[in-house]
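Reminder: ligand-aware prediction takes two inputs, not one.
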Amino acid sequence: MKNKPVRMLSLTHGAIFLLLAVWVLTILFYRKQWLESRNEQIPVFMAAPVKPDQVKSSLPTHQHPSKEAVELDFLKNTINWPSTPPLPLNFSWKDSSDPRHSTFTVLPKRGGGQWHVGDELEVVIKMYNFHGKPKKYGGDFLLARLHSPSLQAGVAGKVVDHLNGSYSALFPLLWEGNVQVQVILVHSSEAVTVLQQLNRMQPYRIYFRSLFRSGSLTETTTCNVYINATQEQLCNYTDLHTGEQWFCYKPKKLSCDARVTHAMGGFRKNIKRQEEMLFQRGINMKVSIPPSNHPNISVLPRVEDQTRGIGDIVRTEPSGYYYGGAWRPLDGTKVHQFNSSTAVSQCLRGKVLHLFGDSTIRQWFEYLIASFPDLKNFDLHNSKQAGPFVALDYPNNILVTYRCHGPPLHFANVPVTQLRYIANELDHIDGGPNTVVVIGVWAHFGSLPVDVYIRRLQNIRKAVMRLLSRAPRTLVVIRTANPKALTVDVALTNSDWYSIQRDKLLRAVFKGLNVHLVDAWEMVLAHHLPHDLHPKPPIIKNMIDFLQSYICPLPTDQTRVNH
Ligand SMILES: *[C@@H]1O[C@H](CO)[C@@H](O)[C@H](O)[C@H]1NC(C)=O
Ligand SMILES: *[C@@H]1O[C@H](CO)[C@@H](O)[C@H](O)[C@H]1NC(C)=O
Ligand SMILES: *[C@@H]1O[C@H](CO)[C@@H](O)[C@H](O)[C@H]1NC(C)=O
Ligand SMILES: *[C@@H]1O[C@H](CO)[C@@H](O)[C@H](O)[C@H]1NC(C)=O
Ligand SMILES: *[C@@H]1O[C@H](CO)[C@@H](O)[C@H](O)[C@H]1NC(C)=O
Ligand SMILES: *[C@@H]1O[C@H](CO)[C@@H](O)[C@H](O)[C@H]1NC(C)=O
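Here is what comes back for the chain with 2-acetamido-2-deoxy-beta-D-glucopyranose:
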């Protein structure tokens, strides 16, 4: 009898607990449904083909997905592109965006009056097709810049897609004088549909070859990140340290160990005629959109006594701008000019610079040895394309090296002995206050599923974190992607549309790390020279000045740079 109230109490507790539990579960259930329905609204276009390792990871499992796998999903969501309708069967390229029928209009200053430094300029872009009909949906790939040719000044704009055939481009006004707006249609939304589809359906359209040799016997087979064949048909060159995958068809007579070279094999172009017409240079690819009027935008000096706070300026946040042909970062970094060999020797004295990456990083090596005769290339008799290269300045004890990244490298005839993953190379660097590591990896990943690129960056990041943890004063600099000149074949494998997404991923993966970005994207976009995979020397000079400003800041800059 005595324990009855206790039982009553526990029953009441139990009931309350049950009610609470049901309530919590209900909320969780609806929240999950809500989240799922939200996710459904976000179309994921860059869906990778089903690869064996992905099938495994998507099966129900009791293990928690790895941190990298969770990040992979998150990163893929950050590069969603606005929905572009599929092309109908009877599609004609004349139904797609026509830059010459399209126009942009500079909006008057909000609140009226004249333009001043510190204001934000907005232009509205309206897209039309080749029949002069307005476009009703978004997804066109536009780039914009604001510039003053006589001042050699320029800044990249920010393009906002209103998803109804109209777009805005926003520019901060950073200098005085007359300024002009340039808006470029890189690809119509219809062309974007094709590029999306190609990466979904034909991600392995660039293929590779390896030569196998033993004695006088040679064979060549096809290689790629993924090959749809049985394990018995393949040589598996997956890197045990990083897990980076690579496969070749097994040679008939030779063993997998007999692989001696790696090279790009070619590109399988499999696209309809009308689709190909969406990539016509000078007609609908990389063409300027004309202004509707010819505005004379004259920017007056900053007005100091305005009520507007400094924070109001920036809906756009460019990383820097050109003035007098020199790049001025907006993050507070002071860029100094290193024009003479003496200035460079002084800055780099006692330093080791390791450059890793594709040909856009090799350019830095080439620029350094061409511009500064004291830094002498030591001929290792390696391929001009792949290196590796070494340059020395003996009196000043300066060492500069270049090494290309691993597969899917597009270069020709790289000896397998020199085919290394950057992450593994970084693990062999001591690091320290006299070591500078420069990394540039982007141009060879455009046609592959983004997963491949993300995993590569995650591996490099892990190695960078190990390096910075054992030698925190190592300077790590990362060069981003940049827009380039496009032909139809370049567009289908390596378009700026692929690059801009990889560029976003690169920035996201290295965000928060103690590494410095050289914003090649904006440095090429804002410059008056044409877009180029390999930007011309005036742009490279700005990049190298930027790099050296990090290596040897003036005493007044030191507080900021020495974290
Ligand atoms: C394509 O077919 C649709 C429906 O059959 C038609 O409405 C449209 O006008 C056609 N377009 C062209 C370019 O022939
Ligand atoms: C498109 O959307 C923008 C932003 O919502 C709006 O200002 C504009 O009027 C729209 N244009 C058309 C043609 O509907
Ligand atoms: C792999 O090839 C087989 C037969 O050749 C085919 O049925 C299958 O769909 C292919 N799988 C993928 C992922 O391409
Ligand atoms: C390739 O080798 C790696 C490492 O040994 C292994 O994990 C993977 O399952 C292999 N893949 C195939 C398709 O054989
Ligand atoms: C633009 O306006 C400025 C002064 O407002 C004037 O000096 C300049 O000549 C004008 N330029 C053109 C092309 O009209
Ligand atoms: C470096 O050269 C540029 C252009 O050649 C020049 O404008 C600049 O003043 C020079 N800077 C120094 C520090 O010599």
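The radius of gyration is 27 Å. The first helix runs from residue 4 to 41. We will return to this case in the review session.
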